[in-house]
Every structure is written in structure tokens, then in C-alpha cells.
């Protein structure tokens, strides 16, 4: 969230100008545990309540699709 706080004005402007509906903010780091190496990933979906109704609906539909498990 520190990234969002530092760049909030840019992110908000892009949404309010209609350039996008929201953002996926993701961080991935390589980690080693004993002899195994794996990737740890954390993602957040970020949008504005002040965006247009259409933008909010599109983004929330996208967010719900991301949380569904594949068929």
C-alpha cells in the first residue's frame, strides 16, 4: 500500500480521466526454504469509489472473475 500512497495522484487521475477502471498491484519475490526455492506473490486490486458507475461495475466484475477458481 506504500506504493499506492506514493502514487495515489497518478492512479486516481488515470481512473478519473477514463484511461482505466482500476489497477492490479502485485509483488513477487523469490524465497528459499531449506533446499526448495519458490515464488511468493501478493496482489491487490485497487479502484476508486468516485469513478463512474460503469467503471466500477466493470472493475468489480473483473475482480470477481479473478477470485473464481478455474472450471
Structure description:
The chain has 71 residues and is an alpha+beta fold. It has one domain (2-67). It has helices at residues 2-16, 53-67; strands at 23-33, 36-46. It is elongated, with a radius of gyration of 16 Å. The N and C termini lie far apart (32 Å). The mean pLDDT is 90.
Low-confidence stretches: none
Mean pLDDT: 90
* Computed CA radius of gyration, to the nearest angstrom: 16 Å
Helix/strand-derived class?
Answer: alpha+beta
- Total helical segments: 2
Major sheet size, sense and barrel closure: 2 strands, antiparallel
Task: Tell me how many strands there are.
Answer: 2
Overall geometry: elongated
**Strand portion, in percent?**
25-35%
How would you spell out the order of helices and strands? HEEH
User: What topology, given as strand order, has the largest sheet?
Assistant: 1-2
Please bin the fraction of helical residues: 40-55%
Distance between the first and last residues' Cα: 32 Å
Whole-number tally of structural domains: 1
Topology:
Layout: H1 2-16, E1 23-33, E2 36-46, H2 53-67
Q: What is the structure about, briefly put?
A:
The chain is an alpha+beta fold and 71 residues long. It is built from two helices and two strands; from the N terminus they run H-E-E-H.
Characteristic terms for this protein:
two-stranded antiparallel ribbon, 31% strand, 42% helix, 2 strands, 71 residues, single chain, alpha+beta
Amino acid at each position: 500500500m506504500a506504493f499506492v500512497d506514493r502514487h495515489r495522484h497518478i492512479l486516481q487521475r488515470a481512473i478519473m480521466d477514463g484511461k482505466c477502471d482500476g489497477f492490479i498491484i502485485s509483488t513477487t519475490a523469490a524465497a528459499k526454504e531449506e533446499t526448495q526455492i519458490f515464488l511468493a506473490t501478493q496482489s491487490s486490486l485497487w479502484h476508486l469509489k468516485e469513478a463512474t458507475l460503469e467503471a466500477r461495475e466493470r472493475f468489480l466484475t473483473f475482480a470477481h472473475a479473478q477470485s473464481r477458481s478455474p472450471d
